[in-house]
Amino acid sequence: MPTFVVEARCKNNQKCVEICPSDIMQMDPDINKAYNVEPDMCWECLSCVKACPERAIEVRPYADISPLGSEISVVRDDKANTIKWDIKYRDSRKKQFEFQIRTTPWDSIAVNPVTSKDNISLDDQELSREPEMLLTGKELPKPNALNLKAGAV
Amino acid sequence: MQVRNVESDVLIIGGGMAGCGAAYEARTWGKDLKIVIAEKANIDRSGAVAMGLSAINTYLGMRWGENTPEDFVNYVKGDLMGLVREDLVYDVARHVDSSVHLLEEWGLPIMKDEKTGKYVREGKWQILIHGESYKPIVAEAAKKAASEIVSRVMITHLITDSQDKNRIAGAVGFDVRDGSFIIFKAKAVVLASGGATHIFRPRSVGEGWGRTWYSPWSTGSGYALPIEAGAKMVQMEIRLVPTRFKDGYGPVGSWFLYLKSKATNVNGETYDTNRDRLRANYGAYADAKPMPTCMRNHLMMEEIKEGRSPILMHTQDALDTREKEEAGWEDFLDMTVSQAMLWASQNTDPKERWSELVPTEPYIMGSHAVNAGAWVSGPEDLAPEEYQWGWNRMTTIAGLFAAGDAAGGAGHKFSSGSFAEGRIAGKAAVKFLHDNSGLRTNLDKEVIEARKNEIFQPLENYQLGKQFITRGSVSPYYLYPNQGLKRLEKIMDEYGGGITSFYSTNSTGLGRGMELLDMLKEDLSLLGAEDLHQLQRAWELNHRVITAESVMRHTLFREETRWPGYYYRTDHPKIDDANWKVFVVSKFDRNSGNWSLEKVPVYNILRTE
Ligand SMILES: Cc1cc2nc3c(=O)[nH]c(=O)nc-3n(C[C@H](O)[C@H](O)[C@H](O)COP(=O)(O)OP(=O)(O)OC[C@H]3O[C@@H](n4cnc5c(N)ncnc54)[C@H](O)[C@@H]3O)c2cc1C
Ligand code: SF4
Ligand code: SF4
B396 pLDDT exceeds 60? Predict the structure, then answer.
């Protein structure tokens, strides 16, 4: 389903242009609205669809494999941290699904530098917050025996 | 033209799983360092995880005694027919659980068994997640860790130091939005620019050309950048041919392992357990347990060749509860929406009828059930001398580190292992700076100027060439990037072991393919770019072509069929352990244009039996 933009709904905020990993959502300079400039390099990842606050972007599945008539719509809510999918079949059957997307609020991650209290050093194999984060109550695993002779197979 | 200079202590190229891991870890060890991520898209939705994932494929479960790092090494070694860097695999294994726990702490929903409190296993190594927001969660940590993120910059070349040609000094590229030329000067660089798709012609055609299983924006920068800078590469001959749902490219892992869906040939017969068929050519490897991924492909390919296709995935027998139906749909809605839409558009309800499976076109990767990439130094405490020349994950260019798809030799890292390996490389880069304090980097003005001219040439080619024609895409003076890409795909498909030759090639075919590739390389100086977006496409094509050439050279050098089901050398149809149970390591010399290839021994470092 390469994407397409419904002209009446596009408000020119460029959210889709900012997010598309393929760099194919771009502005049409004549009408100042977004469009998919290279549908055959679209992965149908729906990143743009999820990012558009106006719900102006829709999808029409790849013409070479998909008969016309089906529809998909998706609402990603980053307050409730859910994603809702509505799928309509070509023959009008419907499927609905809702899934969780995150367990913590957005912008809640902390990145704390290693300090001298952490008892690990640049010369050790431990990464930051190891070995605690292994949750094994043990040290970082080390191999029992090593066989370092050249040519060993 | 605008020129921008960005200086840093650590430059991370590519803010995907590995790049975000590197930024996080480098910051925790280097509180005051300037850490910059250069990313061609927007790290909230970039790389292979842009859409999301429905599983973490590498998790040992050491906290519950489920697996040990030794178990994992044995598994990866078996799956890749013996050719793995055990030191690297072990290293990923021992750090991957703590990395997954970090992801969970950040808010990635991992499914848990209500009774036991343990993660729900998809398979022995895989756990299930609600992973639609996997990438934006990881990106949030990277944004907090990095001093600066330069988005929408296409890195085109690495730059080595003018005083010491074997040490990294930075990279150059251009801003895809405003067209400025950006010079990144850095003391250490972590290369995390991903794998490669569209090296081989995909099964998809027309409007669906971009629907490959791995992301179309994985354009070989993880390989071309280090190759062009003179870094040694390993295992570039191995390519992943995943079995996928036909046309939609839905992954099969969750279906086979979690939902216990069965695949059969057209007659309803199971085909993937017949080891007798493997023994003649592949000896003891035929008895490896579990059966290596490539060999399972091989058995499927034999069915197809012998006329017992289509191969059917009997989803209708697997989705017997609402929970399972949801799990099946979420699998695709989280990471391959096309597959869900294909069902809807073709009126296929997976609860009611089967879907077809096919072996896809080949992909070049370092993180999946293959291990192509840069030849990197191993961890200090367990790598043999031959695998250790400096800091962990450092390439053969001093100060240049690699992780994820870009780092070769390990394999089976997947999302969590790539993230963990990025962390390993991020820490090692900080240690490199620490051990080399007072390091000065020097950029050669002439080299930079030459790169600048080369980078923007396609814009000029287009402007000049278009004056000669009325309109349209046909010009004798320039080639559009997508025209060049189609030529590359056709060459690789027909001569390098793609789908139309049924994954087969031989020395004559490879030789002919390389002749054609040489002419394509000449034509790359005539690429025409209408705008900055097309200029990005032009450089992506350059990177894909360099990647493809190394694939061809490695494939020609290895005179055996090591991974049946990934590719076949029809002139050397058997596994030849006596001569080829070795790594093939290559090096390109940018000055002479010569490639050198060598055999490097495989060490079985761990006494695991
Ligand atoms: C459909 C699909 C399903 C998968 N399923 C699973 C699964 O279930 N479980 C699992 O664990 N793994 C899964 N994987 C694999 C996982 O996604 C990869 O192993 C992992 O993302 C590799 O990480 P990486 O950092 O090496 O590459 P990426 O995550 O791809 O990151 C590469 C980054 O580099 C950037 N970049 C590339 N070139 C340049 C350049 N020239 N200049 C600047 N930036 C550049 C890209 O934009 C990107 O951000 C799946 C992948 C796909 C596509
Ligand atoms: S995000 Fe939506 S409203 Fe904004 S430019 Fe794109 S299509 Fe238009
Ligand atoms: S679906 Fe993905 S690839 Fe396609 S236009 Fe939208 S963001 Fe870009």
Answer: yes
Contact B55, B253 (CB under 8 A): yes
**pLDDT tens for residues B327-383?**
999 999 999 999 999 999 999 999 999 999 999 999 999 999 999 999 999 999 999
- Does the CA dihedral B326-B327-B328-B330 come out positive or negative? positive
- Those of residues 68-97 in B touching chain A at CB distance below 8 A are 68-70, 90-91, 93-95, 97
Cα atoms found within 13 Å of the Cα of residue B492, Cβ hemisphere only = 31
Report pLDDT digits (tens) over A66-94: 999 999 999 999 999 999 999 999 999 99
Contact between B90 and A23 using a beta-carbon 8 Å cutoff: no
Chain B interface test: which of A46, A97, A112 (most B C-beta within 10 Å): A46
Residue A14, C-beta contacts closer than 8 angstroms, at least 6 positions apart? A27, A34
- Ligand 1 site residues, Cβ closer than 6 angstroms: B 13-19, 38-41, 46-49, 53-57, 154-155, 192-194, 213-215, 217-219, 221, 251, 335-336, 367, 404-405, 414-416, 418
Predicted local confidence at residue B273, as pLDDT:
80
Mean pLDDT across the stretch B385-399?
96
The reply to whether A43 belongs to the active site is yes
On the CB side of B281, how many CA atoms lie within 13 Å of its CA?
18
Give, rounded to a whole angstrom, the gap between the first and last alpha carbons of chain B.
Answer: 62
Q: Residue ranges of the domains in chain B? A: 247-359, 448-582
Query: Residue B543: nearest ligand to its CA?
Result: 1
Give the model's confidence band at B317: pLDDT under 50 very low, under 70 low, under 90 confident, else very high: very high
What is the average pLDDT across B123-135? 98
Q: What contacts B89, CB < 8 A, 6 or more positions away?
A: B72, B73, B76, B77, B410, B411, B412
Distance from the Cα of B185 to chain A's closest Cα (Å) equals 24
* B206·A64 Cβ contact <8 A: yes
Widest Cα–Cα separation across chain A: 71
Residues of chain A with CATH 3.30.70.20: 3-100
Angle at B319 between CA B314 and CA B322, to 5 degrees: 165
Q: Is residue A49 lining ligand 2, measured as CB closer than 6 Å?
A: no
B152 touches chain A (CB under 8 A): yes
| Distance, CA of B16 to CA of B146 (rounded, Å) | 13
The domain made up of B247-359 has a fold known as: Flavocytochrome C3; Chain A, domain 1 (3.90.700)
* CATH fold group of domain A3-100: Alpha-Beta Plaits (3.30.70)
Kindly list the distances between the CA atom of residue B421 and the CA atoms of B280, B418, B486, in Å, as whole numbers in the listed order.
38, 5, 33
Cβ atoms B304, B246 nearer than 8 A: no
| A88/B344 CB distance under 8 A | yes
CA dihedral B571, B574, B579, B583 (to 10 degrees): 90
Each residue of B217-226: b (16+ CB within 10 Å) or e? bbbbbbbbbb
Task: For the domain covering B448-582, report its CATH number.
Answer: 1.20.58.100
pLDDT of residue A150 exceeding 60: no
- B418 and B371 Cβ atoms separated by less than 8 Å: no
Q: Are A40 and B210 in contact (CB under 8 A)?
A: yes
pLDDT digits 0-9 by tens, B143-170: 999 999 999 999 999 999 999 999 999 9
User: What percent of chain B lies above the pLDDT cut of 90?
Assistant: 95
Q: How does the average pLDDT of chain B come out, rounded?
A: 96
Model pTM above 0.95: yes
